[in-house]
Amino acid sequence: MSAELSPAEKGKFISARRAVDYVQDGMKLGLGTGSTAAWMVKCLARRVQQEGLQISCAATSTRTAELAKSLGLDVRALDDLGWLDLTIDGADEFDPELSLIKGGGAALLQEKIVASASDQMIVITDPAKEVASLGAFPLPVEVIPFGAMTTKALIEQMLTEMDVAGREVTLRMAGDKALRTDENNLILDLHLQKIGNARELSLMLNQIPGVVENGLFIDICDIVVIGDGAGKVTVKDISDGSSHTEAVTVTAADYSFADPKQ
Ligand SMILES: O=C[C@H](O)[C@H](O)[C@H](O)COP(=O)(O)O
């Protein structure tokens, strides 16, 4: 029997399981990265096994690919699948327009490529990540290693010129070394406090030489599924502005997979 989940973890599980309801036989899927996405991969693998669904998947990180393969999912290269039907992924923040900050797990580049190649993106999340305005979560920016400190200085100069509230930029570390992404790049975290114009900031960042991509996802997410550890799930759909809340029951057997290690 699995140990009782914390309310936060139960919320993640609830949102992941609900989002997997959107998966249909024959779909080509994008699999996100992170602790919430890991629950989704487990729930998906269970559905595939129980219902014999024929689906193929493109993963957004090495760790998600490894998890999905270990659970028997058919994982292919994105270029072998072409256009995807649906991507399900986590997020670090989302706002009322379903704009997102992603990249807390350093997978933003593959995540953005995969989500942008999908008919639909569903974000799975918990209530703590809902914000009126993006920016409390540090904005991850993936940069190439060559001249990374020069790129950092260019970003700081741009933030000053844009008069953004916070301007601290830090190099993300993994222990005593700079963290490397799956593409062997670096992550700069922008501690901005509040992002006024996310669209403008995203465009400006991506014009700086050395920046590969930033963690702002604008006009990409279609649906957010918010799992609440108290046993509720809220589904917000940007296409029609609808929002509804469902009561859900969760037993320990429902989440008795091996612990997600992401
Ligand atoms: O790079 C990682 C991703 O953008 C994650 O989806 C995001 O950080 C959310 O992760 P978690 O579900 O672990 O909070």
Automatic annotation (TrEMBL):
<dbReference type="InterPro" id="IPR037171">
    <property type="entry name" value="NagB/RpiA_transferase-like"/>
</dbReference>
<comment type="pathway">
    <text>Carbohydrate degradation; pentose phosphate pathway; D-ribose 5-phosphate from D-ribulose 5-phosphate (non-oxidative stage): step 1/1.</text>
</comment>
<comment type="similarity">
    <text>Belongs to the ribose 5-phosphate isomerase family.</text>
</comment>
<dbReference type="Pfam" id="PF06026">
    <property type="entry name" value="Rib_5-P_isom_A"/>
</dbReference>
<comment type="function">
    <text>Catalyzes the reversible conversion of ribose-5-phosphate to ribulose 5-phosphate.</text>
</comment>
<dbReference type="InterPro" id="IPR004788">
    <property type="entry name" value="Ribose5P_isomerase_type_A"/>
</dbReference>
<feature type="binding site">
    <location>
        <begin position="89"/>
        <end position="92"/>
    </location>
    <ligand>
        <name>substrate</name>
    </ligand>
</feature>
<keyword id="KW-0413">Isomerase</keyword>
<protein>
    <recommendedName>
        <fullName>Ribose-5-phosphate isomerase A</fullName>
        <ecNumber>5.3.1.6</ecNumber>
    </recommendedName>
</protein>
<dbReference type="GO" id="GO:0004751">
    <property type="term" value="F:ribose-5-phosphate isomerase activity"/>
</dbReference>
<feature type="active site" description="Proton acceptor">
    <location>
        <position position="111"/>
    </location>
</feature>
<feature type="binding site">
    <location>
        <begin position="33"/>
        <end position="36"/>
    </location>
    <ligand>
        <name>substrate</name>
    </ligand>
</feature>
<feature type="binding site">
    <location>
        <begin position="102"/>
        <end position="105"/>
    </location>
    <ligand>
        <name>substrate</name>
    </ligand>
</feature>
<dbReference type="InterPro" id="IPR020672">
    <property type="entry name" value="Ribose5P_isomerase_typA_subgr"/>
</dbReference>
<feature type="binding site">
    <location>
        <position position="129"/>
    </location>
    <ligand>
        <name>substrate</name>
    </ligand>
</feature>
<comment type="subunit">
    <text>Homodimer.</text>
</comment>
